[in-house]
Amino acid sequence: MQIESARQQMIHHQVRAWEVLDERVLQVFERVPRELFVPDAWRDLAFADTEIPLGHDERMLAPKVVGRILQALELEPEDHVLEVGTGSGFLSACLSLQCASVRSLEIHGDLATAARARLEAFGAPGVQVVNADAYGPGALGERPWNVIVLTGSLPVPDERFQQCLAVGGRLFAVVGEPPIMEAQLVRRVSESQFAVESLFETSIRPLLGARRAATFHF
């Protein structure tokens, strides 16, 4: 009962309060047991409005940020999703309930192994966790993706991800440097055109290997 009460507090006082009003997204938070995806040492913070350490200086995204990501993507049952940065596997599980398949890349082998175990325990056969560097050869796969989600930020925009979208596809990315970054939704309008929508301000850890802004030395 305490866990269910905490879950409802999270949904209504964090996720919904941060303008996540899509009932499909709120139902995902009802169905995915966030406590299953939190490392044992941090289980008491499973429903807290905070990022949770995972090791390797990586963080599990706060629930409200996950909610805004899911709402912005407007997932469809036929969508094939590429996630860069599996982390705990929580977002992967949430994505899996709204789309056809998820390929999730995790650069840290131990995090990938732990996420696979959690996703298997939850029951998410549509998620494939791959221990790979997103910047490595062939890591992004061959298909044009309907949806790409980056769970780490990009200090500067990187067109390689949006170029992997199918026409009509959507990319979620957080762009910029701390303390304030901009969450963006990039839509592929045609083979050569993209539309960028500003979603909200946040600050998350940079994607490992992401290109940094040029610095000048005098």
Polypeptide structure, described:
The chain has helices spanning 2-15, 23-31, 63-73, 90-96, 109-122, 159-162, and strands at 52-55, 58-60, 80-84, 101-106, 127-131, 145-150, 165-175, 181-188, 194-202. It has 218 residues and is an alpha/beta fold. The protein has a single domain (2-202), classed as Rossmann fold. The strands form two sheets. The chain has a seven-stranded mixed β-sheet, covered by helices on one side. Strand 8 (181-188) and strand 9 form a beta hairpin. Helix 1 crosses helix 3. The protein is globular, with a radius of gyration of 17 Å. The N and C termini lie far apart (62 Å).
Task: Jot down its keywords.
seven-stranded mixed β-sheet; 6 helices; 218 residues; two-stranded antiparallel sheet; alpha/beta; Rossmann fold
